ABC-type transporter, integral membrane subunit
Amino acid sequence: MLLNKRAERLFVWVFFPLALLMPMLLEQNEYYVNKLTTIMILSIFVMSLDYLVGKCGLITLGHAMFYGLGGYLFVMIAPEYEAVNFWVYTFYICAISSLVAFVIGFLVLRTSGIYMIMITLAFAQMTFYYFSDSIDFGGTDGVFVYVKPETSIFGLSLFDLDNPTHFYYLCLLSLFNSLLFFKVLIRSRFGRLVDAIHVNPGRTVALGYNIFVYRLVSYVIASALGAYAGYLFTLQYGFVNPSMLSWTTSGTALVMSILGGMGSIYGAILGTLVFEGLQYLLEHVTEHWLLFMGGLIITMVMVFKKGIAGFLEDLVEKRDGK
């Protein structure tokens, strides 16, 4: 069974049917549909980081580099005033970002711990300053996307990306597929080996496995998915700028992952929902919202030691009398 925990199954059975209905319930308010779309895109990005840190034990502060790269790659390779095919360019962006991740991963995975954090941060900041200082890419203002891609498959168009509701459903489908993909990956032989490497790398090496290769493949997969999330974000707002590449974006995603429950995968959705929900509420209550936000996050991390997902799992198990 892919979803082996009862709390996880409950979450999936409640969250996705409810998310399917949200555009109909919020038909009169496009703002909230757009806000929920952003949360789903961020959830995909946080999920990819959660897999890397929580499942592979590879702590990085440079994951936002691929998030921003997804948007910039689209601007670089797509014609400025011509609608391209969304599915074809999704493949291009994932393939190019995988290649970039392979080269960077080949270098950074030779380090570990604090050294890996520093080297991933250095790569991300180099990319950030390259695009910030580049006149061709609009400097700190970024670049606008004037024409969104079309989504036809064999002449049949499923989504109109200019329609917020259609775009919402595309992002919901992407989020569901990402969750399913990681669950299949984790349950596969490859996933079990990655788990073994995380728990005891020395013993895995002694058994004859090349742990560098498994870590590199995991890094490439997570980076490609992070780039896909950045590509969706760029299409939603119609622009890309260097803030998507900054280390603060990586740091915020890490906080969302810890809040949701590191390594639980579905906790990435919970962490993003709670973080974005709290930010929205506090922004509308006080101008000093960052102060209260920080206090609430500290409190939640101390109370939910295994994240919100871990708290839910304990609650469900207690109710079942285990």
Observations:
- The longest strand covers residues 143-144.
- The two ends are 20 Å apart (CA to CA).
- The chain has one domain: 6-22+30-320.
- The mean pLDDT is 91.
